[in-house]
Fold this protein.
Amino acid sequence: MTNNLYQRLLLGISCLLYTGMVIAQSAQLKPSASLSVPNSNQTAGQVIQADYIVAIVNSEPVTNNEIRSRLIRYERRLADQNQGMPSRDVLLKEILEDVIKEKIQLQLAKEAGIKIDGRILDAAVQNYAEKNNIPIEELRKRVSSDGVGYAQIRKDLERQLIIQKLREREISTRVSIPENEIDAFLKLSPGVVSDAPPEIDLAQILIAIPEEASAANIQNLKERAERLLAKAKSGEDFFKLAQENSDGTDAKNGGQMGMRPLDRYPTLFAEAVVNLKDGDISDIIKSGAGYHILKVIAKQSPSDAGLIVTQTRARHILMRPNAQMDQAAVIAKLVDFKKRIESKSTDFATIAKQNSQDGSASDGGQLGWSFPLQYAPEFENAMNRLAPGVISEPTVTRFGVHLILVEERRDAKVALSELREQARNVLREKKLDENFNIWLNELRKNAYVEFREAPSK
């Protein structure tokens, strides 16, 4: 759970930083205070307008410069990504509401005594550097050139980690995943081909019956097999009995035939040992080759053997709607991309590199091999309907709108326990999201928020 939580924390930070919605460092002002604050774009001697309070959140001020700092950083990020610029009125309203909600959460976290271990914060900074493809030693210089210092980045990351830790603590107790929900979810999950049969390692003693054997000879051979069976069941070394008595080609290996799926053994063998446990010895089995005595060396249950599932290797292009380019406009743009790719005027990887707003963009949208339940359900359902080489229609998920290209598929084995854990995580994430929205709305509703002057444009 610790590793999962840690990964969830870093993932949350990556998403928040990617969209540019990072908390600006708040000025610690009394309600009546104002001051001049240097802007990253101003030259020496210049000042911007006096700061002022735009809202009060449970007695803590939200300042104009807090909102403007975040606004400037968000607009710069949109410009760097060649995205359309939303209306400032819309942005200011959204940013102010985000800051209010974040302050409420940070206040609650402070009351609860939530703090972040320095090692986790260091790892978050490292993750931030890697996501931005910048060596950690260059982070200070490069970020400073954009008007935001290294200390500010570290402080912003710490705040986001605190919020994530608070959410995990407050919401996790509201979520439980019963085993029957996992069972039902797996039954409806695409990509699971079939239950794999148990795998079993058998050893045998074969008393062969020659083709021209008389009835008397066959009786003698049967009696010989019965004597060997009695010795084996009395505890004599089966390995040695097989080496000294078996007519099978595997006699030199003590009769061991090796671990393999049960359905790869002759049906007579499978039926004889299907209910036996490790170390059990079968009764005598007669086949066209002769008399067989089988010993179960090792047996794996279906849960150990795993399931055969379909893996998919795919690429995608992700675009996120914003105030300037709504969902309909994003879908239209992706439809145009699809037409261009299908007409061979360009290729999927090139479009992904130039336009995708996902970390896979630098690899041409390549997602690699995936197991079932690895992606958001909407994405996975759309992907599973595609034949290799086919591009999806624009697919909407909670992350944005995607074009998906399936490159190839293959069957692979995954432990049932692992697949159940993946299913548990998918169901848990869904319930966490639902409960988080309820929880945050409750916090916002119960908080004291007083709006003062509107943020300046």
Observations:
- The first strand starts at residue 53 and ends at 57.
- The first helix runs from residue 2 to 18.
- The chain has 15 helices and twelve strands.
- The domain at 2-177+435-451 is CATH 1.10.4030.10 (Triger factor/SurA peptide-binding fold).
